[in-house]
């Protein structure tokens, strides 16, 4: 056994309280946004996960003074300078591309390696570059280096994103906040983490209207923003993962502090698998012993669960939906439209006894319920890793999960959280 491995003893009913962490996908751009400030920024409810640690390290390598304690991260960007960022760390996380907009805006130049992250299919960067070019930047893209310059500064523009990319929207929004003049970003992403970044930038003095819609209107300050305090929003992907996990493991689980606005998109997918929830005053309860009956279409046809931009069902929850479908009575089609490698982990579920057919890189048909059994698997990416952990917890016998560092990139203190519910997970 290696330190990157867990032994999971399945078949235990999980019940209790499962508090959500701060959003990974909000904390990462918000850490990058600290570069736009003229003084210290203080973020609270920051998850202590591998990707966040890497982003903190990148900021420190640039000359920022960064402290972290008990979910509170302070960033003083006063000593930051371009060209000093740790290239190795930049290659480890997808979120390093979020430095492009703030660095181009503040320094007028940035050189970054192509970002790392999950290998879940083609993840184009063109939308980022096209948006920055419309703001006045020049982009040179080579295989080993991305160079962005804005010698004359950034200026407001009307931008039409060729796809509603979350991180491209965030890069454009950060850059436009300090550009000179007025910017419109049309076909913008609307995800909760994008809205949370807009709230942080507004606290820093940015003038942003339209957050949560596909049209952002930004009056650029023409200079740096001010330091501010901001609390990172709860992680809606983690909450969705917990809903599927709790339903599969049959015990009653309470998730406190859940924003009501995130539930309908999540349940658009999981609700078709018969998952039921109760919600009151921010407390979300997943009842015990749910029947988990697949809900056919009104015509009686097999239902399709497909992802889409917010407020659609998140592509980061399709892996959880596949595992939940293995425990639901009936047949369903999971259609992952965005990433052509996201569903390749289903061969590991088949080895655990799942009844499914991978039709093509984007579609899998699942028939349940089926009794899963323990085996040895490896986590290919963050979300598939969490889905495999869910499968291991509701399976009979012992499952060995390798490459758990992938799971720890996105889920804070997950072993301790689940152990408190009755899970048996041994870190090795």
Number of helices: 14
Radius of gyration: 22 Å
Distance between the termini: 6 Å
Number of domains: 2
Structural class: alpha+beta
Question: Can you give a write-up of this model?
Answer:
It is built from 14 helices and 23 strands. It is globular, with a radius of gyration of 22 Å. Helix 1 (24-33) runs parallel beside helix 7 (192-203), helix 5 (126-134) runs parallel beside helix 6 and helix 8 (236-249) packs parallel to helix 9. Helices cover 30% and strands 23% of the residues. Strand 9, helix 6 and strand 10 (180-186) form a beta-alpha-beta unit. The strands form 6 sheets. The protein has a 4-stranded mixed sheet with strand order 21-22-1-23. The chain has a 4-stranded mixed sheet with strand order 2-14-16-15, with helices on one face. The model is unreliable at 117-122 (pLDDT under 50). The protein has helices at residues 24-33, 50-61, 87-90, 100-107, 126-134, 166-178, 192-203, 236-249, 263-270, 318-326, 346-351, 382-394, 405-408, 414-419; strands at 5-9, 16-17, 41-44, 65-69, 72-76, 109-112, 138-141, 146-149, 158-160, 180-186, 207-209, 215-221, 229-231, 253-255, 278-280, 283-286, 304-306, 330-335, 355-360, 363-368, 376-378, 398-402, 424-427. The N and C termini lie close together (6 Å). The protein is of the alpha+beta class and 428 residues long. It folds into 2 domains: 5-21 and 235-427, UDP-n-acetylglucosamine1-carboxyvinyl-transferase, Chain; 24-231, Enolpyruvate transferase domain (UDP-n-acetylglucosamine1-carboxyvinyl-transferase, Chain), CATH 3.65.10.
